[in-house]
Amino acid sequence: MTNYTGSKCICCEKRFTDDDDIVVCPDCGTPYHRSCYEKNGRCINDILHDKNVSWLPDSPEPEIPVTSASNVKRCIRCGAENDPSLRYCEQCGTPLINMDAPRPFNDEADDRHDPAPDPMKTNIPGINMTPVMLTQDSDIDGVKLGDLARYVGPNPLGFLPSFIKFGKTDRKLSMNIFAFLFPPMYFMYRKMKGWGLAAALLLGLLNLPFMIESFSSGDYNITIKFAIDVKSHNFQLLKQITMYVSMILEIMAGFFANYLYYKQARHDIFKIYRESEDEDRDAISERIMRKGGTSYGYMLLSFLIYNIISIGSMLVVAKYF
């Protein structure tokens, strides 16, 4: 009885199960559900009777490739469904090439592969990058992911997911709370000297009305006399405008700092690639780490520049205005 399990009854086209009551034609051996055979009253497999051959089990139906839900590539990072032919997630740009890694957004496990390795391990020494199983040679818009991690230095986990998104999509926004709170110091800490100096200059000048008001009223235990009436409507309006402009600049720094850092990293790494064609890999990696990384000295310098601009511009106004 169980030999027919999985084959089709040619009458109702339903597959036989172990619990079905099955009868067979005594001449050709074609199996039927008992109710189907009794309904017809005879074997209806006339082709076998005409050819005088016996019934053989039908072969199982072929599996339909890549259309089942378990074969849909879901992004490990954002969970978006992607066509199996794609290499990168259409939503966030995360590579889909390593599907052996744990897939928390998939409902069904894939038992065809060996257990996946620890997702936090990479072959970049000393760096735990991201839950996406990438290698240091993974290409991110022409730059090796390992070189981006070396350039970042401290805290690559906070930057690489955004870098992957920038490299594989057209998106440029990524929130950085530290850049929002202290733009000049943050830019200089990450060796973005041009942006750091520009932020210190602009924010220092925009802080001038607040400094004038504070020192004219003796808030810092030092009173400086100004020819400007700090209580006038025009001065208060100016102070509000500069405050709002400063806030807008800080918000923009918070949203675009990571993208600006990514563009600088690519620029610096490409330059090192061009200048180091004859050097070995270790020398190139060392140059990238020295070029990138962080600097507390630059961060302190930005703080000094900001205060020099704020206080210096205030003293100039006190002397000449």
TrEMBL record:
The keyword Transmembrane applies. Keywords: Membrane, Transmembrane, Transmembrane helix. The keyword Metal-binding does not apply. The chain crosses the membrane at residues 194-212, 241-262, 296-318. It comes from the Bacteria. It holds the Pfam family Prok-RING_1. This is Zinc-ribbon domain-containing protein. It comes from Ruminococcus albus SY3. The lineage of its organism: Bacteria, Bacillati, Bacillota, Clostridia, Eubacteriales.
